């Protein structure tokens, strides 16, 4: 019988789940039967949703099926608890000083943890089975304090030792590679790592959770409140332990030493992940103490990290701003799965828009420039800082000074910290705003941090896209900073540049900057019709459909206009915004830069990076030095940056 490969694979994984080990298969209960289902796995919640909806469980008097609704609600909140811990730990402006492992989470880890929520599907079915088998459990009162005490007692007496000993067993040679290596394969723990494990591990975890709940229920002290409280507290503590952020005050365990044995800390469990031979407990280090597996560094390290003194100064800062409310929802501390892919407006983001709008108003009123992300390259720490201003605010005359003040204080902070290069992104280097950064350099002549607009590399990327044999180009936005540099560079190479501008004065000024024998190659044009026979358009200003229609078929539209032009013509090519791909040895990068693909950054970002890697000592502000275009390009390639 011939199976299609996908069906065969799925059948095998389903068999894995239920059948004993055979030589062709992995160990039983080591992989999820729905692991190849993609997003279709969520259909598994279907029967429960159908039961809750079909029985109208929310109506009064339908107590028989309310358990089903509670189960779904509880599991939705469980997912939300993991998401909240992710958001908290990734808000680097709050947590940067208390991070335990300093490296960032890269795309590879994000992809590996994509299906972190498999355990919720398993456990909701276990929950449903329990309610199905014990109909009496469907009629719980809302709350019974006695049940809480019984559950706590059973947790300490049964769940903790059960988890401790099975966890130690999972670290044995026979079991580790089959069942536990998955959980340990995430280099940087985070709340989603807490959920990532094999079915067998989660069955043990389910048992540890069920004993206190069922125990309390069997003695008649079960309640709806107990189920919510215990399960959510359990998740909360699991997420906390994996958050990679030390949340307890340093002095707490010195003031109350007995607490050391009652509650673990994020540092405590992170030590288990990094060293793997100690700190096996679920939540109570008491069991490590009894089992002789306590890591003696647990509290000294906890104290050191919570002091917040152990921070690394970045070598390079890319000073970005928010484009609009939509793009603000692409921040890594919102949805990791969203920020790890190129930005686009997707339906589930629509719901967050009002929150994003409100945040924009709050940031306008109160926020200062803040740290949003980072990565490491060639042993140097690179950070993204964000000026709390949105694209439209740069065009409000009354907002200009406020924005410059924000940028200035960010520069001064970087200078004080010892940052080597700060690169101004997008509108933060707008000519009309601060002369491409000139304002700050003139005002603070003794800055140690180098201020860079990075546009020399942007010009280089655009120019290197243009085929070498081109004899004529048409240039719009011709007298802008980039337009001028592109025109001069091409003019010097004796390429005819049709420069679209109505200002003869500005055109002449640029023309005079090229050697006399090249000046004839720069030609002022005032209408798009002048480019009717030119197949290379370099667009630095938004152009309409009517204007694009004037280009001959087969035209290539190169562009440096933000936002990029909408491509109306099917018989033409449209270049993307100038960007470069980071070297392959970049570490800890897990966020896409706006609409760019993974691992790519805007050319001005790359320009600042090259400035830092080359240890150039000048500021790159104001007009582009055309003589440096080739030099910067070669330096970028030398450091492993590649055109996208
Ligand atoms: Zn372990
Ligand atoms: Zn863990």
Automatic annotation (TrEMBL):
<dbReference type="InterPro" id="IPR050307">
    <property type="entry name" value="Sterol_Desaturase_Related"/>
</dbReference>
<feature type="transmembrane region" description="Helical">
    <location>
        <begin position="347"/>
        <end position="366"/>
    </location>
</feature>
<dbReference type="Pfam" id="PF12076">
    <property type="entry name" value="CER1-like_C"/>
</dbReference>
<keyword id="KW-0472">Membrane</keyword>
<dbReference type="InterPro" id="IPR021940">
    <property type="entry name" value="CER1-like_C"/>
</dbReference>
<feature type="transmembrane region" description="Helical">
    <location>
        <begin position="147"/>
        <end position="165"/>
    </location>
</feature>
<comment type="similarity">
    <text>Belongs to the sterol desaturase family.</text>
</comment>
<keyword id="KW-1133">Transmembrane helix</keyword>
<feature type="domain" description="Very-long-chain aldehyde decarbonylase CER1-like C-terminal">
    <location>
        <begin position="473"/>
        <end position="643"/>
    </location>
</feature>
<dbReference type="InterPro" id="IPR006694">
    <property type="entry name" value="Fatty_acid_hydroxylase"/>
</dbReference>
<dbReference type="Pfam" id="PF04116">
    <property type="entry name" value="FA_hydroxylase"/>
</dbReference>
<feature type="transmembrane region" description="Helical">
    <location>
        <begin position="71"/>
        <end position="95"/>
    </location>
</feature>
<feature type="transmembrane region" description="Helical">
    <location>
        <begin position="116"/>
        <end position="135"/>
    </location>
</feature>
<feature type="domain" description="Fatty acid hydroxylase">
    <location>
        <begin position="153"/>
        <end position="293"/>
    </location>
</feature>
<keyword id="KW-0812">Transmembrane</keyword>
<keyword id="KW-0256">Endoplasmic reticulum</keyword>
<protein>
    <recommendedName>
        <fullName>aldehyde oxygenase (deformylating)</fullName>
        <ecNumber>4.1.99.5</ecNumber>
    </recommendedName>
</protein>
<feature type="transmembrane region" description="Helical">
    <location>
        <begin position="203"/>
        <end position="230"/>
    </location>
</feature>
<dbReference type="InterPro" id="IPR036291">
    <property type="entry name" value="NAD(P)-bd_dom_sf"/>
</dbReference>
<keyword id="KW-0456">Lyase</keyword>
